[in-house]
Amino acid sequence: MSLGPAVSRKLLVAALVGALAAGCGKAQKKYKPEKVAPALQANVLDAVPSDIQHRLFTDFGGKVHLLGYNLEPEGVVAPGKKFKLTMYWQPISRLGPGWKLFTHILDASGRLVANDDNEGPLRTLQNNDQALPPSKWQRGKVYVDEQDIEVPAKVESPEITVTVGIWRGNTRLDVLSGLSDGKHRGIVAHVKTGLVPPKPAPAPTKPPKKS
């Protein structure tokens, strides 16, 4: 017995609805938020804090926003001394696996003088992965990224610049808005070292012309 056109269309629609429902169920299961370790639960907030000292809006690839930071101390930090940097991140779209945070310290010429990628509770390496990297972040939450950073003892610049970003393999998320150094690194803060820049060498003087 053949089915009429109307019945066939109903069966086709039902099959499509069932397939979509099954697909959604698989997607929900695939993207189930990962459990946060008890030691890191204080670093995951449900809302943006109202007491962020320095507000930013740095957009990394349309995926993650850097909302701001706190800096302690606020003044001069001499070479060999440490300062505490607390950054506040918020994912707006889920990243795939393998994405991590990095922090680069640059001198006044833009030269890389220190790499602090894995410093701090969110970044402590566990089985070659950071403890709570961007790939494991839940959209809408705010992640408190604390770092104790040492000004390199051999730095000679009157100022260092803290830059951050999100990377995987040879790829960095592009900085779509906010301050950037042009190398897919967001500029967070400038820290004075107390050093005095060297004076430029005096221009050579020409001997007086003989009359």
**N-to-C span:** 122 Å
Mean pLDDT: 87
In terms of quaternary structure, what is this? single chain
**Rg, Å, rounded:** 26 Å
Helix segment tally: 1
Strand content bin:
35-45%
Strand order across the largest sheet? 1-9-4-3-2-12
Q: How does this structure look, described?
A:
It is a single chain. With 211 residues, the protein is mainly beta. The chain has a single domain (42-192), classed as Immunoglobulin-like (Sandwich), CATH 2.60.40.3880. It is 12% helix and 35% strand. The chain has 1 helix and 13 strands, in the order H-E-E-E-E-E-E-E-E-E-E-E-E-E. Strands 1-9-4-3-2-12 form a 6-stranded antiparallel β-sheet, with no helix packed on it. Strand 5 (100-106) and strand 6 form a beta hairpin.
